[in-house]
Amino acid sequence: xxxxxxxxxxxxxxxxxxxxxxxxxxxxxxxxxxxxxxxxxxxxxxxxxxxxxxxxxxxxxxxxxxxxxxxxxxxxxxxxxxxxxxxxxxxxxxxxxxxxxxxxxxxxxxxxxxxxxxxxxxxxxxxxxxxxxxxxxxxxxxxxxxxxxxxxxxxxxxxxxxxxxxxxxxxxxxxxxxxxxxxxxxxxxxxxxxxxxxxxxxxxxxxxxxxxxxxxxxxxxxxxxxxxxxxxxxxxxxxxxxxxxxxxxxxxxxxxxxxxxxxxxxxxxxxxxxxxxxxxxxxxxxxxxxxxxxxxxxxxxxxxxxxxxxxxxxxxxxxxxxxxxxx
Length: 327
What we know:
Layout (H helix, E strand, L loop, with lengths): L2 E7 L3 H10 L10 E3 L2 E5 L11 E5 L21 E3 L2 E4 L4 H13 L6 E5 L12 E5 L4 E6 L2 E6 L10 H8 L7 E4 L8 H6 L3 E6 L2 H13 L6 E5 L6 H4 L3 E6 L9 H7 E14 L5 H11 L3 E15 L2 E12 L1
Parallel strand pairs: 6-7, 11-12, 11-14, 12-13, 14-15
Antiparallel strand pairs: 1-3, 1-4, 2-3, 5-6, 7-8, 9-10, 15-17, 16-17
């Protein structure tokens, strides 16, 4: 019996599975199947699947032996996976303990279960964790054909942004000069380098930069990635007017760096500006900040206004794709 499935290349499978799982669209009654380099992921509601995914009818067999965390708790199990590290977000200690135990007892490959214990804090952009199972906070995450080593206790990383990162990366062309102003461990920088760009990744978190260098080697793009530890505002002396593309993934604070972005921009530059704003005016603050910083020196064209995800009640994580052309 055929059922609706999302079909993706195998190298994109884990990121796609995570995105579908976050939206609770995976049909847990059926097996995920790999065949001829393609992954077939059964979905419970094909009409709710984002248009970017191809849906086909496929004979995915019923699951027989695998046990999921959902089957072991009396509530909907919500979790994210980074390799064999599983992340949960439960405020109730009893519920967190029950979910962690269910994850360990299930058939998921797991070495560590972490519960979020704080929001992202400080300029290092890290959070506290409660370790509910295991000891290691280091993970190896695979996303759209790239591999990222990272330590969740020491760096910021969100698997929820995989689809957005892929959307931006697909715009990059061979030979581009890209500056990732807040690069972290490289989830933008590495795939952009794999597409043939020369990428400069900057971050104030020294551990993140160490992982960026390691990940560039893991993905065989170390010759096209320059990793710099420091404040990106100190980069303008060396890279003024250099960039064809800028990534500004620092929601809440990106507006403090728009003048630096304009200084780094070349004759023609695309800026991916991320922000978190209230629903009453999602895109206005960012667009006004960019236009003011660009002044008369650049013509400013907003190519795309896009809501990435819900962040809090009435607040959203958004992105502006902005084209700067020297006047």
